[in-house]
Amino acid sequence: MPKRFASIWFRRLLTDQKAIRQPELKGKAYVFAEPDHGRMLITALTDEARKFGVTEGMTVADARIIAPDLQVFDGIPGRNLKLLTGLAEWCLRYTPYVQLDPPDGLLLDVTGCTHLKGGEKAYLQEIVSRLKAAGYHIRPAIADTIGSAWGVARFATSGLIVPEGAHRNALMPLPPSALRLPADLLIKLRNLGLHQISSFIYMPDSVLRRRFGKNMVLRLKQALGQEAEYLFPLKEPVPYTEQLACLEPIKTRPAIEIALNDLLERLCKRLYGEGLGLRSVLFSWYRIDGKNGNIKIGTNHSSNRVPHLFKLFFIKMDTVAPGMGIELFVLDALKTEPVSDKQSEIWTLKGGADNEEVAELLDRVAGRIGSAYIQRYLPGEHYWPERTPKPDPDIKKAPESEWRTDKPRPMQILDQPEPIETMALTPDYAPKLFIWKGEQHLIVGADGPERIEREWWDDPGEHRDYYIVEDEAGSRYWLFRSGHYNAENNQHWYLHGFFA
Amino acid sequence: MKATKEEIVSKLRQDMLRWEGFRPPKPGADNDLGLGPVAAAFPDGVFPTGAIHEFISSKPESTAATGGFIAGLVQKLLLSGGACLWISYTRRLYPPALKLFGVDPDRVIFIDVPLQKDVLWVTEEALKCEGVATVICETKDLSFMESQRLQLAVEKSHVTGFVLRKDVKKVNTTACITRWQISPVRSQLRTGMPGVGHPRWQVELVKVRNGKPGNWIIEWKKQSFQTIIAPRIIEPARRYA
Fold it and tell me: Looking at the record, which segments are called Disordered (chain A) (predicted)?
C-alpha cells in the first residue's frame, strides 16, 4: 500500500491561540516579542499587524511607529512546542502516527486511515473544519511523501490533496523554500535565478551536490520519494487499541460507563479471537476543552472477561472528571499475554487458591488498597523468627521447602519485642515472674531455653534464648533473653509473642 | 390428627431455620469440623458453614487463643479446596504457627489493609467470592448493619466467615450466627512433668442462633480438638436469636 502523509501548517499558531484564550483580541493587531540583545524582537504577529507593514524580526520600537495601536505581548520560548504537543495528542484520533514538525506544523501518517472518514477529501475536511471552528488558521495537504506534503501545505495555492504519484508535478511550480532548505541556500538559489523547483529538478545529482551540498540533494530526493523518510511518532502506537468518538460531548457517569463497557467488549472480542488476555489496560478520555486524563488498571493473570475488567475500572471511576464533556475515549492494551483457555471446572466448586475467581477478587482488592498490601508467605530457610516467613507476592508459586513443625511457635508475634522486667535465676533458668505493661505475671510452667543465633552474615548482635512460659491464668508467652548475663546490663529480657 | 399437627410444627421449624439463612448440610458433605461434643450445641448438630461467626477477645493472650481455635476450624474447611483469606488492619499473626494447627501458611493470603475503614469493604468483597473457602477478618468494631451485610454476602456464596474482634470495649448486637469467647487456660501435663503442655482453651459459645449456648474446655492435641470435660449447657430453656 503506498504511503500517504498529511502535513498541517498552523499559519499563526501563537497568535491564534491567544485569540482563543482572549476572544476580545480577535481582529486586532497584536504581536509577540522576545528579548534579544537588549531589544525586543517580534516573533509572531497577526495578519492585521502585517497589513501595517510589521514583519517578523522587526524591533518593537520600529513596529510601534508604523502601527501605533499595536499590542505587544511577551513571547514565551518553547510555547509553540507545548501547543503543538497538545494539538498532536488531539490528532491521535485521526491516526496513530503523529509527529511534531516545529516550529508550527504537524505531520501525520494517514496511510489506511482516510477511508474511515469517507475518503481523503472528507478526512481533511473534518480536520480543517474542526480546527477552524476552534479558531486556528491552518493549511493542510496530503501527498505521497512527507517532503511534498510539507511543501504543498505551505506554498501551493490549490490542489492541497496531491493524487497518488502526482507529487512530482505538484512540486514543479513551487519555490525552492518548499524543500525545507536552510536560509543561506535559499539566498544562493535566488541569486542564481532558480525561482522554481522545476528550474533545477532536472539537473544531475552530481551537479547539485557540488554546487549546493549534500543536504539539498537529500531534501529533493525525500520530497520526490526517492529517499526514505520516517516519522517519529509522538506516542508509541500499541497493537491493540480501541477508540470511541462521541457525537455529543458526554458528561454523565452512566454514559461514561456505557462507553467503557463498549470499548472493553470490542477490545476483548479481538483479543479473544487471538487467544490473548489483558494484563494492563489504559483507559483515556479527551475532553472538548483540550484536557485529558486516564485510568490504568493491572490484573494478576491475563483476562479477557469484560465484567471483571469493568469492575476494576469501576473502582477508580470516581477520578473521571468530565468537565464540559468528553468527546473521545481510547482504550489501549498496554500489556497482553496468552490467556489460559482451560474450561472453568463446573463440577468442582472450589479449586485451589490460584483459581480465576480468587485472582479476580485480588485484582479488585489491589485496585482499592494497592497490591503491596496483599501478602503471602513461603517458608524461608532461616532460624531467626523474623525471617522464617518469607513474603512472596506471587500467588501461584509453590513452596520449595516444608514448614517446620518441630519447634512450637507463637500464634501472635510482636513486630518489636517489648522489654519486660523479670525475676530469673542465673545462669539459664526461665523467669519466675515478669512484669509487662505494669502487670505482674507469675510463671507456673516453662519450657526452654531454645537458643537462636543471629545470622552474623546479615546482622551483628546478641543471640536470643527463648522460653515458653505459662502464667497462673493460663496465658502462654514467648519470652527471650538477649545475650549472656553481664554485670552492667540487666535490661535484656523481652516479650516476643503469645501462644495459642 | 395430633401426629399431623406435630409434623406441621416441625416442618414449620425447619422452614423458619431456612428463612433465617441456615441451610442444612448437603448430603455427602463432611461438615464435621472435629469439634466433638461441641457440635451438639448447633442447630441440627453440625457446625454451620456458610455463615458468619463472631469471636470476641479483649486482650492479646485471648486473641492468640482465638487464632489457634479458628486455625483448627479452618484446617477442616480447607480440605475441600479453595482459598483462605486473612484480612486485618494491624496483624500480629505469625504465619509459621498456622502449620501447628494443620493449616499450610502458604495457602493463606494475607491482606493487611492500610486503612481501617477498608477492612470491611475487602471482607465483603472476599465473602462474595465463591472461589474462597473461608475468610478471617480481624477488626475492632462491627455494627449491626455491617454484620448484616456480611451475612447477606455469605448466604449467596456459602463462604464461611470468621470475624475476630480485638480489644472490644462494648459488645453490641450483631447478625452473626454465633458468638464465641475463647481464653487460654492452664495446660496440663502428666503429674510431675515440668514445662508447658498442649494449647488448652476455655471455649465459650455465648450466642448461637437456634442452638444451645455452652461452655467447654478444649485442648489442641494430635492435630485435632479434644474436649476435656463433658459439655455443660447453660440455661437450656433459653433461646438466643
Answer: 384-404
Determine contact, residues B120/A344, Cβ cutoff 8 Å.
no
pLDDT tens digit sequence for B93-149: 999 999 989 888 888 999 999 888 889 999 999 998 888 889 999 998 889 999 999
Number of inter-chain CB pairs under 8 A, A vs B: 186
Look at chain A and report how many structural domains it folds into: 4
Together in a domain, A172 and A264: no
Q: Which residues in A lie closer than 8 A to residue B114 (C-beta atoms)?
A: 369-370, 373
- Residue A312: pLDDT band (50, 70, 90) is confident
Q: Which three cell numbers stand for residue A478?
A: 514467648
How close does chain A come to B216, measured CA to CA in Å?
15
Contact A477, A497 (CB under 8 A): yes
Task: Give the rounded distance of the alpha carbon of B76 from its chain centre.
Answer: 12
CB B218 within 8 A of CB B193: no
Q: Which chain B positions have a beta carbon within 8 Å of A410's beta carbon?
A: 64, 94, 97
Q: Which of A361, A374, A395 to mutate to test the interface with B (most CBs of B within 10 A)?
A: A361
| pLDDT tens-digit map of A69-123 | 888 888 888 888 888 888 888 888 888 888 888 888 899 998 888 888 888 889 8
Please, what sign has the CA dihedral across residues B199, B205, B211, B212?
positive
Q: Say if residue A325 is in the same domain as residue A382.
A: no
Do A268 and A225 share a domain, yes or no?
A: no
DSSP A59: B
pTM: 0.67
Backbone conformation region of residue B59, classed left if phi is above 0, alpha if psi is from -120 to 50, else beta: beta
Q: Is the ipTM of this complex over 0.95?
A: no
Look up the CATH number of the domain holding residue B224. 3.40.50.300
| 8-state DSSP, A398 | P
Q: Which of A45, A6, A4 is nearest to A153 (CA)?
A: A6
